Amino acid sequence: MKLLFAILVALPKPSDSFFGADKMKHFFLSAFVQSVAFGGLRSFAVDRPRALRAAGGVTAAVGLGKELYDSRRTGLFSVRDLVWDAAGAAVATQGLRRTGARSRPSFPGMPLSSILGAADIRLPPTQARSAE
Questions:
Q1: Measured distance CA(31)–CA(48) in Å, rounded
Q2: What's the CA gap between 99 and 4, in Å, rounded?
Q3: In angstroms, rounded to a whole number, what is the distance separating the alpha carbons of residues 22 and 18?
Q4: Residues 39-94 pLDDT 10s
Q5: What's this model's pTM, rounded to 2 decimal places?
Q6: CA 19 to chain centre
Q7: How far apart are CA 132 and CA 122, in angstroms?
Q8: So what's the pLDDT on residue 21?
Q9: Domain ranges (residues) in the chain
Q10: What is the per-residue burial (b if ≥16 Cβ within 10 Å, else e) of 58-67?
Q11: DSSP of 34-90, one letter per residue?
Q12: Looking at per-residue confidence, does 17 or 105 come out higher?
């Protein structure tokens, strides 16, 4: 038993901690990638559920690609980094799902009052005539 304890103590400590600045970068960058990919897909009229799934795939591919790059460059493939990548993507997905509950105004043909959220916006009579 003492020999096993001595071996465990003598083993090198992993340089990849589970909590650190690097992990926060993975979390927030994955949330950002998830959001940008989702927004880009929605701008091409992809429906919400499909855009969420595809954005998750893009985020996973970016995270996995980064780890493969790191493993070639430094020899360290970090599963912990992938865990933080997945957490960032999951938080972004939940946020994107919640924002979908409200309808978003589309600008073409939408009244200015709807876009700005104001009750009633009217142009003064002189500006209204010159705009026609």
A1: 17
A2: 53
A3: 9
A4: 999 999 888 999 999 999 999 999 999 999 988 998 888 888 999 999 999 999 99
A5: 0.64
A6: 20
A7: 14
A8: 80
A9: 21-101
A10: bbbebbeebb
A11: HHHHHHHHHHTT--HHHHHHHHHHHHHHHHHHHHHHHHHHTS---HHHHHHHHHHHH
A12: 17
Cβ(38)–Cβ(52) under 8 Å? yes
Cα torsion angle, 64, 68, 74, 80, sign: positive
Torsion over CA: 76, 78, 82, 87 (sign): negative
Angle, helices 79-99/21-43, rounded to nearest 10 degrees = 40
Here the tokens at position 77 are 């493939």
Length of the chain: 132
The whole-angstrom separation of Cα 10 and Cα 131 is: 81
pLDDT digits (tens, 9 = 90+) for 19-30: 878 889 999 999
Q: How many CB atoms lie within 10 A of CB 51?
A: 21
- The pLDDT value recorded for residue 99 is 82
Residue 53: CB atoms within 10 Å: 14
By CB atoms closer than 10 A (0-12, 13-18, 19+), residue 27 is: buried
